[in-house]
Amino acid sequence: MLHYQVFGAINDLSLAEAQKVLQLNTAVPLTLSQLFIQDHYWTRRPSYLINLASAGGELPLPYAAFHSASKAALLGFARGSRFELQVTQIHLMTVIPSLLATGHFQQQTAPYLKANSLIAQLLAHSQLDPAKVAKKIVTSALRGQQILRLPLAYQWLAAFNRLAPRISRKIIAQPYRTR
């Protein structure tokens, strides 16, 4: 269970809370990734490095600036390390789920959503089962997939966001409360 604020208006988060988000979501996985790569760089058998990012790393999420920035860093790491890893047996995959049923939505996102919003209700009921996601991650990694966006509907939203970011931001912001 999270014991600190992850989501919130930028000016409402303390510096310590922002640093905890960046440390947990960025520094820790990137440090572990570097250690893994250093240990497996010359290994002749396939190795699999899987980082869990978030839809927030690609899409603008209201009240989630530090979360989004930390997850975007994982995507930048994956894109930046591909050239170096192509000469190894290390297969790096970055998983970008929209919502996992872990309690994070209820704790961190739901408080910022408009009451009785249809989209908010859909989000609450469309959370991904972590066990099913884990199986999908394994099969996708073994196939050599580099990016795994879940669910399929999120893949379409991410593509739409790249093509029409202004419209996408309006759609994403619709269920959120404003101050």
Structural write-up:
By secondary structure, this protein is mainly α. Helix content is 53%, strand content 10%. It contains seven helices and three strands. The protein has helices at residues 15-40, 65-85, 104-109, 118-125, 130-142, 152-163, 165-173, and strands spanning 47-52, 90-97, 147-150. Helix 2 (65-85) links the parallel strand 1 (47-52) and strand 2 (90-97). Helix 1 (15-40) runs parallel beside helix 2 (65-85) and helix 6 (152-163) crosses helix 7. The longest helix is centred in the N-terminal third of the chain and has 26 residues, at 15-40.
**Uncertain runs with pLDDT below 50, 5 residues or more?**
none
Strand content: 5-15%
Spatial sequence of strands, sheet with the most strands? 1-2-3
Q: Give the overall shape.
A: globular
Radius of gyration from the alpha-carbon trace, in angstroms: 17 Å
**Into which percent range does the helicity of residues fall?**
40-55%
- Total DSSP E strands: 3
Q: Spell out the helices and strands N to C.
A: HEHEHHHEHH
Give the secondary structure arrangement, pairings included.
Layout: H1 15-40, E1 47-52, H2 65-85, E2 90-97, H3 104-109, H4 118-125, H5 130-142, E3 147-150, H6 152-163, H7 165-173
Parallel strand pairs: 1-2, 2-3
Give the structure's gist in a few sentences.
By secondary structure, this protein is mainly alpha-helical. The chain has helices at 15-40, 65-85, 104-109, 118-125, 130-142, 152-163, 165-173, and strands at residues 47-52, 90-97, 147-150. The protein has a 3-stranded parallel sheet, sandwiched between helices.
